[in-house]
Amino acid sequence: MKLRRGLAGFALLALAPLAACQSSNPATDLSRIDTAQGSAENISSLSSVIDRTPNEPEAYNMRGAAYGRAGRYNEALKDFDKAIALNPRSHNAYANRALIHRYLGQNDRAMADYNQAISLNPNYDTAYIGRAEIYRLAGRSTEALADLERAIGLDTTDPRAFYRRGLLYQASGQHPYAIEDFAASISLAPDAPYGYNGRGLSYLAQGDDENAFSDFNTAIRLDDKIAESWANQALVYEKRGENAKAFKSYTRALQLDPDYAPARDGLSRTSS
Length: 272
Prior knowledge:
The termini are far apart. This protein has 272 residues and is mainly α. The protein contains 16 helices and no strands. It holds the Pfam family TPR_11.
């Protein structure tokens, strides 16, 4: 896929659910750390491997990934520390540890680890994608875009690269580019709801309510436990004047996430 033009006029859209679309979902990231699942059985199996080969760095890296998938971040950090101590040139261990640091709110440490991973392997797409997310969430959009362009230029097959670049284009109002990137992320991860939510919001910004509604409904079908999807669906109902249906979808969104402001605001608009 060709590289895009730079971000122009970086202003947020006046769409209530957009902030949700721009958030990062931990489950999406953790699924990219490693193929190891975070089940007790897998962790036990990897622990047995470590017992047999206590000096094998990749065993700690894999168990750290499993701990990360299970949300056991402190244990994950210890394993990644051990993997790096045993193999200081393990670029993927640095990137894995960086991701855990980010989830713990330790962005300076995460950035240092991503920088080290890139220093060890300048062609490691995962590290560019991870570092770009730190830049993006810090409002450093130009740097985020540059890292995502680099990852995509390396022919990454990671859907996050396209999804997050789509978010940057969406936030700057470049919706045709955003829609193309969200479509690319969907093609790489057709069972993940986030690309559909992102593309739906850009369709909605262009006045294409029908395609937006279809994407939001697909996101709900794929995972009906995401508040953003229900609030996005409600927004289309609201635009159509179907306030009773909108109220019901906003209510569902708030049940899933009581702190989700777009759903709370939408509920207030459609309650009468």
